[in-house]
Amino acid sequence: EEPISQPKEYEVVGLEAENVTIGFRFAGAISADADMLTLISSILYNNKAGLIDLNINKKQFAQRAYVSARIMTDYSILQFSGRNKKGQSLEEVKDLLLKQVELLKKGEFPDWMLEAAINNYKLKRMNALESASSRARMMLNAFLNGIEWENVVFSVERLQKISKEQIVEFANDYLGDNYVVVYKRQGKPQDVAKVAKPPITPIHINRDVESDFLKRVKAAKVTPVEPVFIDYNKDITKIKLHEEIEVLYKQNTENGTFNLVYYYPFGRLSNPALTHAADYIQLLGTSKLSAEEVSQEFYRLACTFNINVSDEHTYITLSGLSENAAKALNLMESLLNDCQPDESALKAYIANQLKARNDAKRSQSAVFRALVSYATYGQNNPQNYILSEKELNDLKPEDLIGLIKRLGSYPHTVLYYGPLSSNEVKHLLAKEHRLPKKFNPTPVNKKFEPLETSTDKVLFAHYDAKQSYLQTLSRGQKYDDNLYSIITLYNEYFGGGMNAIVFQEMREKRGLAYTARSRYTIPSKPDGYRINMSFIATQNDKVIDAFNAFNELFNAMPENPIGFNLSKEALISDIQNNRIRNMRVLYSYLNAKRMGWTDDIRKKLYTQIPTYTLSDVKKFQEQYIKAKPKTYIILGKEADMNFHELKRLYGPVTKLTLEQIFGY
To answer: Any residues with CB less than 8 A from the CB of 93 and at least 6 apart, and which?
Structure first.
């Protein structure tokens, strides 16, 4: 490739929100550049204390900015990305990003940053080595990129030999005007090349035929692996820290990392402002440390603190190097209980949130998620259970800080996985975890129930794209423990992977889409409803073909004994070979407790699935799925839709606006 000697600028136009991307080209994976890029990318951005973190994201000078090192075989890329705030140009975001490069070239970052970057790299490596799939990916990556395995094993030691002076010299040598910048503008593309639609000939699916290779594989003698199930009484130690606080403990005997979680059984649906409080605390400091100093200290300790708020659950998480667990816990507790208000940070945060809401209306996937939520629950649904623009603008720093500080006053469960003994964990928590004299009642999540699907109907929303997103929904009955195993087997056979009926019929045979799936969902709580759903992304002129094809499969499910047996074998093999370990053991227990299970649910699957026949699955399908009324959901281009035919085939059509879907 010819060297890049001056900036090259390109523009692309599309419907989704604007952003800017900058790329510097470097040598490939086996070069010394790869190590330099690993460290430089962490100094620039590490989601805590990098130059971009502190100088752009923390100060909210852009809606979002980050950098990553893409290490590849022939060439590597140091890639910067940013999204502009309301009223801010992409060129201004570009200048902000390049300003951080100049700071790097001047060596204007703390001397401890390099050591911290290496410690965090070491932590990331330890976490990756816990997983067999991650270890396999490391070997695959080394093989594909021609990296000697010895160089992978000793990567940490190699990074430790790099000095700050070498980083600065490298940056000055290779980070100049030799970059490419791409501005992604928001708008409708012009002069789009039209491609003639090719005829698609359906292929014959020979499910009952086995190749000689498959026969040899199936005939091979394999010693079955015995499954290992979780024993919730033996594999987890339960410690009473307080009458209202139980600690779920499991020791890490593999490495020096830890995970600590405060779990609360309520989330955004108990108070929509809780999500904003969780975001806001990341912008705050304490009475002793500024927001920047808090972030820097967590990074120096190679520890990560977050508050994750889902619809119905809240998790305060702390993880990292166990040798720093006590210091990190003290810092986290200080922030939770002593976070200081920052009016300007809140104003900038709210402005970015409002822009993000408008950006969501331009995102096809975001619009579709909102549309599906509307179709599932109605006008008032979990997706649009949010603060109004006025409520958001009326928020005060004290409101959000109060929500954070009150979290400690509610009963919660503590999860710990790490090297410390159970007594050491209990002592550490007794010392650092601040508990109230009296606990407040647990907040209650607002309940949303899926609408009954009594008749066929169509919900449509416009999105100006060549591809439509389609989904069908049909609400069933509430959770039934007796159906868990047969539903799992049905899903694997009908709508699972590449061997499943849906994939082979919708993609392979009919060529209707690259992505197609179906699932009869099992509720995540015992009072939830089962829902039969299907999804396909297809061309606008194939909407009716796709719905008809799904209905054919739902109403006359193909019976394929070979495929069915493969589905059973796949499920059994997964249970035999999959190991639930580490923190997943504790989360598995929480889920089992929520569902009312006393044993690892996989025991039931392992015992019952071998007993089922294809006739059993067919009977289940005919009883719970066949010919059931559906809600047909379409996100597509209005001008390309045949609404008369949609109404004739699938019931009355309701056209929804973005304001109706999103609630703003």
So the answer is: 20, 62, 65, 82, 83, 84
